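User: For a reading group we're discussing how well predicted structures match intuition. Take Uu.00g042770.m01.CDS01. Before you show the prediction, I'll give you the sequence so everyone sees exactly what went in.
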Amino acid sequence: MFTTVISIGLLSLASSVPLAPRQVVPHYPPSSQSTGFKLVANATDPTNDMAASVNGLVLQGIHVGAGLNDAALGSDTNNSRIFYQNGTAEELRYNQGDILSDGGTPIFPWGIQVANQNASDPAALRGVTVDAGSGTVGVSLAHFPDPYVYLTALGAGKFVACDEYVRYYNQNFTTVRYVTGVQDPATALYTYSIPENCVAINLIPECAALPDLPEGSISSHEFAASAKCYADVSAINWPEYGP
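Assistant: Thanks. Here is the predicted 3D structure of Uu.00g042770.m01.CDS01, as structure tokens, for the group to look at:
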């Protein structure tokens, strides 16, 4: 009882003394600028990763048909896809650009595409591809006021990595999918239905040189815009950063 009384007294005394505002100094990982970048996966919850960690894997495309690449994660190699933001300054400001890569012969654009939401099952996983042509408008890199940079799509949603069977190859790959959040009207918070074979990820831009286009290319870098990116995503110790 004595300890309790003293504690209450001290609490009352402390609450009666005005406290000086605590200055919070933002502390975020250093970033740079580059027109080209790779997209490196990082599990959003370190306690909920795959048995073979997705951290450090890069976004690639696995061929599943003419001009069609399913989005998947793989080891970083010299042949890993390099992406770039495509759009005018105004389009990018309002998330109306897209994310492209180059490939093929002659070289033509490949865009990151996110399938439309299933009207009968809004929470269902949505396919993600890197297909020939433009990308889905609104797939972009997060910008101010968000202090971190990562791939986003319009609306509340998350990219996920899934251990998934791909019939074209008759084997499993670590595919990339997108799940839309469902808002709880009572709390205004979003919930996400992520299957057991999937984990939530961020796809984070790692700075890379965007190769020049040779003559005869169908691709154009006229609207390739500089992007905020990180030098080495895998080397970032995320828990030490924040406001």
